[in-house]
Structures are given as structure tokens and as C-alpha cells.
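INFO worker-7 received task bundle
INFO bundle size: 2
INFO processing item 0
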Amino acid sequence: MNKLLKGIIKLSFVLFIVSQGAQAKTPSIEQLPILKQDQIHQIVTNRVTNYFTQSHYRNFQLDGAFSAKIFDRYFKLLDGSKTYFIQSDIDSFRGKQEYLGEELLNGNLTTAYDIYNLSIQKRYNRYKFALEVLQKPMDFSVKESINFKRDDISWATTEKELDTYWNKRVKYDELNLSLSGKSEKEIRDILTKRYTRVLKTLIQSKNEDAFQIFMNAFAREIDPHTSYLAPRKKRDFDSEMSLSMEGIGATLSQQEDYTEIMSFVTGGPAEKSKLLAVGDKIIGVGQSNTPIEDVIGWRLDDIVDKIRGPKGTVVKLEILPAGNNSKPKVVEITRDKIHFEDREAKLTIIDNIRGKVGVIEIPSFYIGLTEKVNSLLTQANKDNLKGLVIDLRDNGGGSLAEVITLTGLFIDSGPVVQVRDNLQKVTIYDDKKKGIKYFGPIVVLINHYSASASEIFSAAMQDYGRALIVGETTYGKGTVQTSRNIAYPVDARLHPNWPELGGVQYTVQKFYRINGGSTQLKGVEPDIEMINTKYIDETGERFLDNAMPWDKIQPAKYSIIANIKPFLSELKSQHLVRIAKNPEFTYIGEDIKQFNDKTEAQYSVSLNKIEREAEQKSNEDRDLKRINERLSRAGLPIIAKMDDLPKNYKRPDAYLDEAVEMLLDFAPKYLGMKNQ
């Protein structure tokens, strides 16, 4: 789920100015707001604290020791790279660290707001310093580097230590622009606007900003998948789970003080209206019964909130059309329900020389997934396929109910997953619906980012012998979260003037495979690992703070559909022979080796232009060489430089291509077992 939340309705902040000839005005430190707790936040704090202390899977005491952990977590969330605070800043609040639990229980978060107010001052000072550094001569001849892995270093003891880092940080930004061909004047203009935009964002800080970060410091100290969802985040989460929302269907980004339309959702109200175009700037927003309000310089999330609204209602937008010398105009658009079809499961038929294979890509376990896959299988059953590849790569999970019903499309009936709550009660979730939608051979393709519901599905298919699991070991998230509204049903009647309260997501169970094992920390190991060389990285549950431990329970009663283990050795040998001859896997191996050879050095970036140009040229030469090798293998003309690459060029998906070949190896063996 963590990954899913991170993926919710992302809004790109592109930090350069739009207005012609405009000079960025630097906000003063006196303009920074002094944030304080909203009255409604006391109620929200009490309710969230009750949920976490009374209903969470992990039993904990909100005592002084736990309060001290929240204190450290809060500073980590505010300044994980340790580039704003110094040690004395932390020490100035150290005397209050053991009382944060009491503040949570009382609903009075004074200390949290005091710390946050200091944090925005420190951020302001650092970006003001960055603007001063910009005025210095640029010198990229010195042999020095900047290290971005700073989470495990000590806090700086003086501001001068941070000055040293920020001098390098600005030089890093300057050098990146210089490497892209920008002149010194262009570099200063771009970075002045970028840093000034950060300062403008700081003076627009809101009480909710401090509140949600502190509440999530509390949540994440319990376990990594427990969260407080501010009202806006709660709406985004609900939209992601249902793949739908109500609004106009436009993607926006902030271009300095302006909000610009970047794209449209196909079939949405904005696209259908023909009244808007990509590049238009929204300068005012109003409702059908209210005047238009100027929104230039507003926070993007506030503008999005004003544009969204219930289906059937009207929003008025004042638009500055794309292009020079355009005049503002007002348009009215009726909001509607928008469905994100591009995030649904989809079926692709691959016509391999050995036969046709269906590939079902499942990006997430959203509400309605099983119904969609059922319709895709109806189509697949008509195509005389050799088998199916189910692609769960980068699928961070979703609905537990959906993974149970999805598994039921491939088995007759039986247990899918076991869960255990904090009272140690074990519940077995079965597919109770008799019948199988698809009987043929299946390969499930997984990677390090396949998590949660993806792991439940992969584990069940593996335990039943219903599918061959290939790829990489999965993420290792073996916990179940529930989502709750903070508002009670009676609140609307008793407190009609209250704003939205948001929601919480917290861990209530651990899930277990039907064989009794757990995916927690360990993940699902594939039957055949695609490539032996492993990344030396920190991807997975086992690298997260406060992750639940691994354990196991008694297996459920189930019958294996097919015993594929006797064939794994032969299938693996066929796989290894094939990838040894596949240049794409050679490239992958080279990239992994290069990554691993750097280890700690991978976080250190040179600030010497000659060294960076040499590295850049080496990477570009390697990429050009590989592309030309691919073009040659396809019988296409090679290119002289990357700019000549055809727009329709698509990089091969080596893992998926190999999964198809493995399915074709596996299919006759699986069918042979079924026919015995």
C-alpha cells in the first residue's frame, strides 16, 4: 500500500517562470506564517490516537520511550537528508520529547507546531543562502563531489557545515544545467526562479501541513504501513482504489505562479468540451453560483480542490489561452465521473513463433479488477492461446477482497490466504465460488516491487502449483491494513459545519500463505529467478523501520493442482541457455554490475565538469551502441546520434519476452500433468 499511496494523483511541480520578462520577487522571512493547531485538529488527534492505540495489530504503550521515537521520526520526516537543522535545533526541543505521547492523548500538539515553524524558517534560510551562492562565479574545474546519502550521518553542529553542503548543492544544480547546454545567465535565471518558488511555497504553508507530517511521524513509528490521510489524501486514495473521481479530467502542473493544463483524461468533461487546450493557464476559478476568484500564485493543491466537485455541478474557469498576446476568457464545464481506463488491467496477445500467448498486465488490485480480468479471460479463451502470462511487476497491492476473487478465476474452490489478528485469531479466506474461468498454463511475472496483494496472489498460485512464478523475489509486505473515515456517521447531523476530517489506514492483521508460511520480510521467491546477479540496493520491507517480524502458522487444508517441481530444473536450464544468448540480458547484467561496483560511491556525484562530461559521454555512447545493435538485429538502419532515434522506438521488455518463452516451455508439461 505504501507504494500505492505514493502513486496517488501525482501533480508535477515544474519550477520555472511563465510570464515574459517577469522578475522573481524574493519573499521576506517576515512573510512566513506562524502555524498553529486548528480547533478541529484536536478532535482528529483524539480519534486517530484512539484508532492506533486500541485497534492496531501491534500493541504499544504511548509512554515516554515511544514518545522519544516519535520525536526522532518527526525530525527525520522534516529533514531526512539533514540539510536544514543543526544539532542545537534538535537539542532545543529535546526536553519535550518524552511528552509527545501526552500531547497526542490530550489532543494538544503545541510542540509539533513549534518544531514545524522552526523547520520552515530553516528551509527559508537555506534557500535564501542558495540565492546568494548563485551570485558567485561558477567554477566547475575543482575536483570535488557531493554525497546525497546523508540519512545515516550525524546532524551538523554549525551552520557553516551546512553552508559547505549548500555551496555544493547549488553547484550541482548549476552543473546539471551547464551540461544541458545552458549559459551562465540562463543558469542563474532558471535557478533564481526555482529557489524563489520554494520560498513562495514556504510562505503558503498551512496548519494542515504540520499536522499531517506529525501525525504520520506517530503512525510510521508504529509500523511502515500505518498512515494518517489528510482530507485531500483520503480523496486521492479513494480515487486510486476505484480508478475514478469526479471533476473535469485535466492534469495540471504549476509553472511558477501559474497553473497550466498538461493533459486531459480521455473521454473526460474537459476533453469533450473542446473549450480547453494543453498549455492553457488557469488564472481564476469559481462555482456556478459564486464569483470567479483569482488563483495566480496559489498552491496547486488548493486550485485542484476548487476545480474538483460532484458530478453534475458546474465549475467556471478563467483561462489565459496558450500562445502569445492571448486574452483571458471564461469557460464553464460540467463536472462528471471520470474513469482512469489507462490504469485498468489489460490483455495483449503476443504472436510468438511457437504459438500465441496472452499477457494480462495488472497495475494494482483496484475495486472491480476481478470483473475486468474475467472479461479479458472471456476474450482470451476465444484466441486459442498456448497460455497466459500475468504481469504483476511494480504492482504495489490493493484490495484483499479482489485478490481472493481474482485467484478464484483460476482455481475451482479452496483457501486463498490466511490472516491472523492481534488476538491471534486465524481466519481463512476461501474462494467459495465453484468453477474455473481459465484452465490453461499460467506464468506469473513478479519483481522486487510486487507487494501485498500481488504477493498473496503469487503465493497462492505457487502453493497450488497453478502457475509457474518467475522473475525476482517480491517486496516482502505481509501485513493487512484497513481504511477508516475519521468522521463518525452521526457527525454530519450533529456537526454539519465541520470540515472533512480525513481518514486513517492502519495494520490490523498479518497474512499467511495457505502453506502456513509468511511473505513478511522474505517475500515470494520465484520458482525460477530470471537473472542471478542481484542489485545491492535497499528495496523491500526488510529495510523499513518498524517492520513486523517474520513468523509462520499452521497450513490450511488444500489440494495441490499440479506438482511442477519435477520440471523446474529442466525449465531453468532452458531459461539459462536462452538468456545467455540474449543480448538484452547481457545489457541487464552489465548495468547491475556497474551499479553494484559503485555501492557507496553511487551516492557520490562529481562536481567536476570534465569528469561529468566524460561520464555522460560514456553513458551516451553505451546507450547509442545498444540501440544500434537492437536496430541492426531488427534489420533497421542505425543512427548517428540519440536525437535521430525514431519517435516510435520502443525499448525491448526483456523480462516479459523471456516470461513468454518460459510459458511456452512450461505449457506442454503442465498440460501433460493435467491430462494424466
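INFO item 0 finished
INFO processing item 1
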Amino acid sequence: MNAPLNISMPVEASQAPKSYKLLIDGKHVDARDGRTIERNSPGHGFAVSRYAQAGAAEVDAAVQAAHKAFEAGAWPRMKASERAAVLLKAADLIEGRLEEIARLDALESGKPIAQARGEIGGAVDIWRYAASLARTLHGESYANL
């Protein structure tokens, strides 16, 4: 778990940065104006990733799609155990890609790989904690997560 970061796999200076799109209404889309944000490795000096840069139109579309999905979707009608299962699945998916996500985080930010692994592991813990709350909420909510 504390193995050093090997920058030769799979991102190298000679490779194009990995591109990521926005997820809006279940579809991966580019920003309407085509704008992107490029993240460079401060420690190695090459582009690591490129993200579609959301503007007001994309934010509005995403909020509208999320509201529609919540109102028309299954989530509000799910049993607590079903909601917990969805949140646990999210935790498992993140944990299954922990090394990949931590590596990208370390390359983009310049932080030590051990720190990035710890932060991603912490995110997994928060998803699991939220899953436990899905089964135990009884009229109270916790705003400071």
C-alpha cells in the first residue's frame, strides 16, 4: 500500500493526457463551448488529464437532470436496505479503483502517493458510513459529514 509512485505506468510525458467528459442526464458530454481544464503534474511537468469545463449552462442542465431523476426515479421509493446497497456498491467501485484514482490524484497535485491513497480510502469510508446511515435514520439528519 505504501509502494512508491511509478510514473511510467500508464501515464508518461510522451502520452496524451486522459480526457474526461461531464456526466449530465446519464450521458457523457463535452462542455457546450468546448472549454477544458488541463491538469499538469507539478513534479514532472507534463499534462496528466483534461476535463470538460462546465459553465452555467452545464450546471443548470445537470441540476435539472438530477431533480428530474430524483422525482421520477426509484431512489425516493427505495427501502433503506436498498439505498444502503447502492451506497455500498459505490464504495466498492471506488475501492476497486483506489490505486488508479490515487495515482491520478498524486500526479495531478504533486502530493505523495501514500497521502493520495489515504484520502481515497477515506472517501470509501465516508460512502460506507453513509450506507450505514441509510439503514439507521429515524427523523434526524447529520449535516457535518
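INFO item 1 finished
INFO post-check item 1: The CA atoms of residues 88 and 128 lie 6 Å apart.
INFO post-check item 1: The chain has a mean pLDDT of 89.
INFO worker-7 idle
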